[in-house]
Write a structure and sequence with these properties.
- It contains eleven helices and twelve strands.
- The chain is α+β, with helices and mostly antiparallel strands.
- The strands form three sheets. It has a six-stranded mixed β-sheet, sandwiched between helices. A four-stranded antiparallel β-sheet has the order 6-5-9-12, with no helix packed on it. It has a two-stranded antiparallel ribbon with strand order 3-4.
- The two termini are 49 Å apart.
Length: 376
């Protein structure tokens, strides 16, 4: 009876909700498609955004269901394009913010439309005739296609974009394709607001980004930090840790490079296997510490597990190589450098801390066993 009453109240509440409130619901997942291409003195931006993400747009509708009246929708389309899409995007030529975006064309497309497979067909579709009013399209099921241009000084300039489109949905995925002067297409895919994305980065921009990415990854990767902690618990001296950390570094560098070059399995089970092996490597090292195995040859075991951890690093790197531009090798080395800097920082901070802990709070053997058990 309680469930029945709850259902009845839910139905009544839904029935009396204002239509505007229901219409303004933010969709869970939104997929945005975009093209960027420089052409002489202007930068072309083509975008396709699902209409259900444009919660502020007031499209003219007919019927109880809410079919779009296409012949009267131009004002609503232009308002949505300017206020909800273009205002959320910043484009840069070098270090200069591009101003005065000009909205050249807008059009509503059907859910079945596949014109955004390439730049030429997308551009042609935006300028094609609008859909007839006899077409029944529920306003939350279509796409809004736009073509905007920005004045630039040269098509040979380097451009970057800060697309703040996360507010279009609970999870907004943007696929942006940048068309270079030679016709090469560079694809970027990101979720939410990725910050400033260099469409054709210079080498130092790519290096800085990937050093920061590797540094952040080691500090945010709990599994890698626990593994390092397992290594330093029984040693607690930088001189003793050098050969062990070096073997770990060499090992994960090997598999990291191999993964970047595509020399690893691409099957769906491989990431799950690697994550499991990383967890097992931590437990194994913790058990070694508890049992009290001699540390002289630990660098060999560390090298083997370093190969596994390198695959773990590569999963993040593979997703991020899209931001490297034409500097793939340099970005790979920069990421590895960032990881090493993060490891050095962790060791320099953790060794004195653990040393003080053993000196004033924990006895030698009991302390090793206790800390290793906690980590494991």
């Amino acid at each position: 009876m309680f469930r029945a009453i709850a259902v009845i109240f839910a139905l009544l509440f839904t029935a009396v909700l204002p239509k505007g409130l229901m219409a303004d619901e933010i969709p869970l997942r939104v997929a945005v498609q975009a093209f960027v291409k420089a052409d002489n003195d202007r930068l072309n931006v083509l975008m396709r955004v699902p209409m259900d993400a444009l919660v502020e747009a007031q499209f003219p509708l007919r019927g109880e269901v809410g079919f779009v009246i296409f012949s009267e929708a131009r004002g609503a389309m232009e308002s949505a394009a300017n206020n909800e899409i273009l205002q959320a995007i910043q484009l840069f030529e070098g270090d200069s913010l591009l101003q005065s975006a000009s909205l050249e064309a807008v059009r509503i497309a059907l859910p079945s439309d596949r014109s955004f497979v390439n730049y030429e067909s997308a551009l042609a579709n935006v300028y094609s005739a609008p859909l007839p009013d006899a077409m029944d399209l529920y306003y939350r099921q279509g796409f809004l296609d736009i073509h905007a241009t920005y004045p630039i000084t040269s098509a040979a300039s380097r451009f970057s974009v800060d697309a703040r489109l996360a507010g279009l949905g609970v999870e907004t995925t943007t696929v942006l394709r940048y068309i270079l002067a030679d016709g090469e297409e560079r694809t970027f895919s990101f979720i939410g607001n990725p910050g400033l994305v260099y469409l054709d980065p210079r080498w130092y921009q790519a290096v800085f980004n990937f050093v920061a990415l590797g540094f952040d990854h080691i500090l945010e990767g709990t599994d890698h930090l626990l593994f390092l902690f397992c290594l330093l618990i029984p040693l607690r001296k930088v001189s003793a840790l050098i050969p062990v950390i070096t073997s770990f570094t060499v090992a994960h560098s090997i598999t990291l490079i191999a993964s970047a070059l595509g020399w690893v399995p691409s099957t769906i089970w491989f990431p799950a296997l690697i994550e499991t092996l990383i967890a097992l490597s931590i437990v194994y090292m913790a058990c070694e510490n508890i049992i009290g195995i001699k540390q002289q040859h630990r660098w060999i075991v560390t090298f083997c597990f370093g190969l596994v951890h390198g695959f773990g690093f590569s999963f993040l790197l593979t997703e991020s190589m899209q931001f490297a531009g034409s500097h793939l090798v340099m970005s790979l080395l920069a990421f590895n450098l960032g990881v090493e800097l993060g490891q050095v920082l962790v060791v320099l901070l953790a060794v004195p801390l653990v040393h003080l802990l053993f000196k004033y709070a924990l006895p030698e053997k009991a302390g090793v066993i206790l800390l290793s058990a906690i980590v494991g």
